[in-house]
Amino acid sequence: LSHGVRLCFVGTHFPIGGVRAAIDEVEQPGDIASVLRSAKIALAKSLRQVLRRAVHSNILCSNTILVIQGDLNSRTLLDPSGGSPRDVLLELIGDTCLQAAIQEGLNLPPGRWHEIASCKEAYHLPVTYKFTDCPGSFFRRQDPRPHGQLGPGTHLSLGDVFAETELVRRTMMAFHEEEPLAHLDSDLYRRTMMGIPGEQLEAWGLQFKEAGFRPFRFPASPDRTIYWVPDVLASRIAWSLPHGGYKVCHHQHGSDHRPVSLEAVLHVAPHNMAAAAAAEAAAEATTRLQVLAHRPESQLESGGLCQSDNGESDSEH
């Protein structure tokens, strides 16, 4: 590209095993923080492997943006205390210490992962999983309509799903307000789904089988596009989204995921040698301070992440 910037695109399908095991811990008494931490570390292992392989292939340098897209197998976490839902990938991207641990020891310039179509809350993410094989009636194609008349729905967010479940969740919290919330964990995801009327599930095409339902099958946004960029380059780039963000094709059938597209325009500012040197020095100093300030946690996290560095048991599938 212009201004000496390189783009490298990777399609991937991350393993679900580690994230699934972390989320299924809700079947045992536990708080949302420990479940979220386990899920983030499981997803961070996959991101570390991507960086490690890119380093071994001599792909990454200070002028390279690494874009990965596909089923990253992020999942939705519910808070037994009634707080806002969490998205594992969104929480991981916002975790500065874990971001540093992901690339520790990989001989990379200071950098981090970002999402192109970023958002602040899980409510705004599109639902791309878990659906039935056939499109829901809310999204089915209909005959062309007169100009100005609304057609079938084209968007379903996690916020839409939780709007339908808010009443049942508040009822659960009120009913059990004097009992330990941990006892609700094993049923929280299933009961939340039961709060959505059957006709609404059918209209959206969401799949829910009450018998044998597991927390990791809760509606989620696993199909995403993220990128790793050195901090010195991050200050020179910006993304614009002509269509506002992710677009989900709810008319496609044959899978429990729905296809996703994202149109984004990358803007690159000219390279400034003095500013770049100052930014790089500041990024390195910030990274060192973060490691020193959080050394016990950093050692624990990066040690866990590095367990897969010498093997392929946690590789992408």
Written account of the structure:
This protein is an alpha+beta fold. 37% of the residues lie in helices and 14% in strands. The protein contains ten helices and ten strands. The chain has helices spanning 17-23, 32-56, 88-93, 96-103, 158-175, 185-194, 198-204, 231-234, 273-293, 295-305, and strands spanning 6-13, 64-71, 76-77, 86-87, 111-115, 223-230, 237-240, 247-248, 260-261, 265-268. A four-stranded mixed β-sheet has the order 1-2-6-5. A hairpin with an 8-residue loop joins strand 3 and strand 4. The longest helix is centred in the N-terminal third of the chain and has 25 residues, at 32-56. The radius of gyration is 21 Å and the shape is globular. The two termini are 30 Å apart.
Mind sketching the topology for me?
Elements: E1 6-13, H1 17-23, H2 32-56, E2 64-71, E3 76-77, E4 86-87, H3 88-93, H4 96-103, E5 111-115, H5 158-175, H6 185-194, H7 198-204, E6 223-230, H8 231-234, E7 237-240, E8 247-248, E9 260-261, E10 265-268, H9 273-293, H10 295-305
Helix pairs in contact: 1-2, 2-4, 4-10, 5-6
Which blocks of ≥5 consecutive residues have pLDDT under 50? 147-152, 180-184, 291-303, 312-317
In whole angstroms, the N-to-C terminal distance is 30 Å
Number of strands: 10
Q: How much β-strand is present in the residues?
A: 5-15%
Count of separate DSSP helical elements: 10
Q: Tell me, briefly, the overall form.
A: globular
H/E series: EHHEEEHHEHHHEHEEEEHH
Indicate the structural class. Answer: alpha+beta
Give, in spatial order, the strands making up the sheet with the most strands.
1-2-6-5
Radius of gyration, in Å, reads 21 Å
Average residue-wise pLDDT = 83
Largest sheet descriptor: 4 strands, mixed
Helix content: 25-40%
